[in-house]
Every structure is written in structure tokens, then in C-alpha cells.
Amino acid sequence: MAHQHQHHDHTDIDWAEMATHLETQAELFTPLYEHALSWLAKEVTEPGLVVDAGSGPGVISCLFAETFPGARIVAVDSSEPLLERARDRAARQGAGDRFGTLAGELPGVLDELDYPADLLWASRSVHHLGDQKAALAACAARLAPGGTLAVMEGGLPARFLPRDLGIGRPGLQARIDAVEEEWFARMRAELPGSVAHTEDWPALLTAAGLHHTRSRTFLLDLPAPAGDRARAYVVASLTRTREILGEALDAEDRATLDRLLDPADPASLHHRPDVFVLAAHTVHAAVRPV
To answer: What are phi and psi of 131, to 5 degrees?
Structure first.
């Protein structure tokens, strides 16, 4: 799904169950994140403090620890259970001595940082804040002079299956995308303090007082036949689609989803040889003037 709404900022989530899903998803997407971090590292050299704003269980935070072995990493999230997982992961990877966490709601919790950040990363967390423009300004204010703000937002909807599945009407995922866009618009409108802004991310970064804006899109391309981890991710993603968006689809598409999710059906995701994962995520970065 375009917005990847398997997020960790809803109070009714079963953390014990959802944390594992978030971790598994981030691990699957690690090649994409590694390419994005490598791109950032070409211009962000030897940062002292890297902040992962909206870190979840810390998979990307720990990738930053690998990318910048001399940096201190701070993972920021509203969920203490997810931050505990982040600390455990950092310890397992030998980065625990330079890895910290900060629990609280974005963007206000960033005021509690001891030092300004040389790199502040926000991966699909800004769109869950009512006033995205104000949130970016708050993030920019926590940068050191010459520091970089990198925001992963936008890209393209993920694809898992051929257009014509052989069951149901062709174009199922495109119709799911349309329903999700409606859901996303409602979610944004219902956020506290929601403000509508044109989602021109480079322009929003410029409005936050930053310069040298740049954007790049990174691919995750796991071709068919999907491996076990990729297949499990697709099953989990479309299961949540069925649960959250299913009633907005027509009866035929619901029936197709049900067949895709039924392990006993030969046409299901569990057995099909044509399951793949193709995703495109965009990173927008800009620098605080010295």
C-alpha cells in the first residue's frame, strides 16, 4: 500500500503482536533502507548525533549505527515497548553503548534531546502529525547548523501480484489503492490540529528554513517466486487490508481477497508462484544553513 499504514501510533494496537510485524516488515525492506542511508552518507559525513524520529522497533536506527560507526544514535517513539526492542537490537549488534531512546509524542518530544542533531530521519511518521508543515519546522529547529533533515514520504503503492490474477476482476490492487487513498484522507482530516498542505515535500522543507533540498526514490524489488519472508509479508499486508479496508471494497473484490488469504485455496498467496514485492519509497532531504 502506498502509505504503508502498519504504523505504531495507534493506542488500540496489541503491541506484543504488532511489534513483531513491524520488525519483520522493516527487516524485509532493509535493502531499500541501506540504499537510502548510503545516499545520505555521501553528504552527511561523520555525524555526531543521528536521531530516528518515529523509530518503531529500531531496525532503521540500528542501520544508522552501522552506517555511521562514530555516531550516537537516538531512537524516538511514542511506544516504550517498541523502544525496548530497539535497545535490545542495538545491544545484540554491539552498538548499545552509543544507542539511546526517547519516549514521547512527536514533534514536541524532540525538545528533550540533549544536543542538536547532525542528521534527523523521519520515516513515514510526519504524515501522522496534524500540521505537517509545523512538524517539519520543529524537526528543523532541532538540527545543528549544517545538519540534515531526511523525510521518507511518498513513493508508489507496493505491488505484490499480476494485474490479472486469474481469479476475480483484473486490477484488484489498483482498486485497493483507491480505497486506501480515501481512508488516508479521512485519517489526515481527523488528526488533532489537522492542516491541509500541498504535499510538495521539498517546498515544505524550504518553508522550514532549510536549503539544498534533494529527493530520491529507492526500490525494493523481490521478484517472483517470493521467498518465505516476502510471502509472509504479503499475506500480513493483505490481511490487514481485508480487516481495515475490506468493507469499502465491492463484494467481488472481498471474495477475491478471501480466496487469496485462504491457505486451503490453491489460488491463495500461500501457494501462488507469481507473488512478488515491488515497492518504491522516496526520501526528501535538506540542510540547515550554517
So the answer is: -110, 95
